[in-house]
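Section handout 9: paired folding examples.
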Amino acid sequence: MKRIGKILVVAVLCAVVFATGCSKDGSGAAAGKRPVIGCTVYYMTEFVTLMAEGIKGECAARGIDLILLDANNDAQVQIGQVENLIAQKVDALLIAAVDSDAIVPAIALAKRAGIHLVGLNMLINTNEQYYYSGPNDVEAGEKSAQRLIELIGGKGNVVILEGPIGQSAQVQRLEGNRNVLARYPDVRVLAQQTANWSRAEALALVENWIEAFPNLDGIIAHNDEMALGAIQALEAKGIKNRIPVTAVDAIKDACFAIRDGRYEMTVFQDAEWEGRLGVYLCALLIEGKAPMQRMHLIEMISIDKNNVQELIDKIY
């Protein structure tokens, strides 16, 4: 089992590597003017709230002004926000996309305006090159599914709570789930459906699944919010002790649920560091420097009863 303390070492090493990026002629904030980052995020879940704290903290530390907007899971609203931020002449855009396809026009809009763009947490479905800070979501989906299958003994009936359809996290975590499920012919997926990262939506959906599938053995969720909604539904029916749940993110509520024996496993992606790294990439670009690589993927670490207290102590 990896120890959580390694995360801090990885973060420092990454910062050193990125700082060696070669300088190139390019735009920067006007002399005497504080640079401004315009950031739009898909929806203020607990995870995104943690990521936003990292964004705010890194902007404050670097003397960068921040405009932070919530698209409330509406792709058209988010494109409108991008257009408004460009009209305000921000120096860089930091975008956690509602939809990996719908956000593609933002790249051309930013390029036309001469504004740097960095993707955050959600990939953009394009062949155009852009900089990115985010998770290895395929790996996260694989880790979550593998643990769930181990918990049910390699056979049984499962359901999958998906993120919003079209977001890169949903697409890639499902890919990771399927990579593992393909190796276990005795595991049957009874249903899969989005609950839009929402605890309340997952609660309602799992209540329906409990009634529809009395032979349900386990639940794979694409994030902790949905996992916690699923756990609430299972506990209300008195069947949580026989139906394990696994997911991704390691938010505070999820870690406490694991500590208390109510939740089996999640996969940690450091939301605050992810946000700080996104700001760091924006800062380099504003300064006219090119990071050495475009895709910066956060290390994903399995969290269960064996290491959750360490994570709580270090992060929460």
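Moving on to protein 2 of 2.
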Amino acid sequence: MAAIDEPVEVRNGEELDAEKVKSYLVAHIPGISGDIEIQQFPSGFSNLTYSVKIGGKEMILRRPPFGKKAKTAHDMSREFRVLSGLRPFFRYCPQPLLYCDDESVMGAPFYVMDRLKGIILRKNFPKGFSLSEMEAEALCDRFIDVLVELHSVDYKKAGMADFGKPEGYVCRQVEGWSGRYRDARTPDAPDFEMVMAWLAEKMPPESPVVSVIHNDYKFDNVVLNPQNPLEIIGVLDWEMATIGDPLMDLGSSLAYWIDRDDPKEYHHMRMLPTTEPGMLTRKQVVQRYAARMGIEVAKFDFYLCFGFFRLAVIAQQIYYRFYHGQTKDKRFEMLIFAVALLEKAALELISQSDL
């Protein structure tokens, strides 16, 4: 069995009051009792994810980060409602158990869901895990299949019609993320003005396809079956899910995807094992996705450029908190270098684009 993703000791400054958490969960989730153990999953840069064990019950608790947060980010209620509405139609959602808006418990809203125990791929394969080239390609194919399954869900039947406004979606995204970047920019950050102007100028027409979009779909947000690592058993981190153009979702996903022949400096910001032998290239992912969705994707430059920019905004928002001393997590200090590299990647893409 390959290494299962496991939690570790809670980081300093991000501790929870175990007795308060236990009292609330025991009172509101039927059938749980016993001692409580709280640990933390160390990866991720946004919402905080904890392992909570009470007796024999293993759960995941999600709460916002400490410090300043963007107004529309970290909405625990919305993330809980996404899981609740989507799970009957998309089997990869974890089972949501409880939402709490009583901030006396831990100073912020939070929700609890069942734990999906499995393998999560991060920058490098975990110890004891390996894939042949054929298996790596098959896993990429399965990764694409699950995204196509999500984009094929009837969001109205799932009760998610009010989770987004499809009309004008791309325009709102470009304008909204541009505003967020300017708000979060620190003196040491690049200005991204050329990228934002290009995105505003090159926006595609309204998409004929509207779907649920995850908005952070990547290998470290999917859970693999420990007994069969080519099987995806879960998709995590639904905090940015909405309704809109599915190609925007694919562009955001591929912004994380480093190809083997990308410039060496881009490999420094690699977060996923997409350079392993057999892994598909970004171009191959787009081609296979389009074929399975039954759509034409002639011009993908806009979507990938937006993906680079959006990822830079997320990194800059997190770095802003570190820069202003609102978090002591040293991982955030290096994000400013990723922001600069993402601007360079976006500008290079623009310079080569025929849009």
